Amino acid sequence: MPLHTVSKTTFRHFPASECTFPISRPSPSGGKTADTSAAHEKKTSLSLITTPGFHYLWIRQDAPRQRTKRKLRFLLVAALGFHYLCTKPLSMADSVLFQRILTHFPYEPSPEQRSAMEALAEFLNPDSRQRVFILRGYAGTGKTSLVAALVRALHDAGREAFLMAPTGRAAKVMAGYSGTAARTIHKQIYAVVPRSGGGMSFILRPNKSKNAVFLVDEASMLTDRTGDSLTDASSSLLDDLVSYVFHAPGSRLILVGDRAQLPPVGYEDSPALEGRTFENGYGLYCTEIDLTRVYRQSEQSAILQNATRVRQAMESGATLPWGSLKFRTGSDFIRLEDGYDIQSAIEGAYSQEGLSETILITRSNKRAGAFNAQIRSRVLLSEGEIAAGDLLMVVKNNYFWVDENSPCGFIANGDLAEVMSVRREIELYGMRFARVELSLTDYPQMPKFEALILLDTLYSQAPALPEERSRAFFEQVMLDYEDLPPHKRFEALAKNEYYNAIQVKFGYAVTCHKAQGGGWDNVLIEQVWMPEPKLSREYLRWLYTAITRARKRVYLIGFPDEFFE
Fold this sequence. Notes:
alpha/beta; Rossmann fold; 6-stranded parallel beta sheet; 5-stranded parallel beta sheet; 15 helices; globular; disordered N terminus
């Protein structure tokens, strides 16, 4: 340890009377055990010197020279005592990292927030056995402020930290509040390599960052379902994330999320926010912390108040009667009662914050398609199937059009793109395409690029191109290469720009799963018809997730009188 850092160490002195560490040793006669301790070393004291990553034991012995056996016995006892002191939880109030987190926290922490800081400081101690930290927090509990303070504290300490999120939009949000660049998980952990038979494939990058901290926001979106990995159909994205992080020694993984938000499709709960997932599935020690209290700093926000009411209703665990949930309207939580109100609200939001900071959330792709058509024709006055200025959302990962070393790495499902210009429309292989110039709104440092987009998905009621149409498309393209040897056909297919066209939908209205992980200044939420006028836990979780996408204003569409005070 450099000498100039000695001033930052913590010195603890333990008199001999306090250094009683019983041990058991075989007795000379065998079978029985005898206890001994360091208490009798009357003139011996221990001083523990603690530094970030190191513990030093200073042993001072004033007694006269002793026999070798007694010396060895004392050293054994001292060593055991030293181990005890090093593993015994030290007061986090004395932790340098804790103090740094506290310094960067924007307001006086509550006892709950302070406990979370202490737990994080203890978790990041190099001697800790914990490898995974799960920070769960509801909207308004200070989770975002805590993570931002932690990131800045790690930078102050010279500790390497990598920020990740499941989607480009979520990564952008994370980078905004932390002041540090964030990547998608895919961009961080995967590398694209040429395939021997042609085309490209993915491999896990080697993690070369020893003792680094990896933070993942919006972890509720991660699944442990096999088949969602880019490297192996028998593994999951969570498998690959764990393999990548813990490939390097000393790595720590911090997962941040809100368990009240929507879990992945087909799940009742989010596996990445449950400690048992890592302890039972991966054999990793895990720390779990919950932030549950909504604090005064945001109590004037009707968005936060109403989100809390929805969450509390959801936590009851039962289906609630219609009318039991009441919203409080305000300047940031607005009820829209007719079509004129809706159009006026959208126009105002677009003029104030722009297209990319306004989203309409509905329950189905069919409803999203209907809203997208109405917004284009009535609000934006767009003509034609697609036009310059249109906002698109990518609905399937695409690895063809951007370089692997570009800021985005690849075009991911959920990325938003603005159409800068439309060059021409093409019909080929039984499909319709447009050659356009695109700008990825969540990657401002990314230059504009030319690409082909698939027009057939724009108004489709399916999430992406249906399987039967994908199969027919594949067969049509392969006809162009039937004169080639079989191993050359797939190589040619991988280079076919039409087969690699980007699948998109308009990005003005989306489903809640598509919006999850993102944040917008303005969020419009449509209440859809339900067969029974009851509030199920699934519906309340959907509503909570939709409300918490908003930074400035929420607009409610079609909600009946029973929902309001």
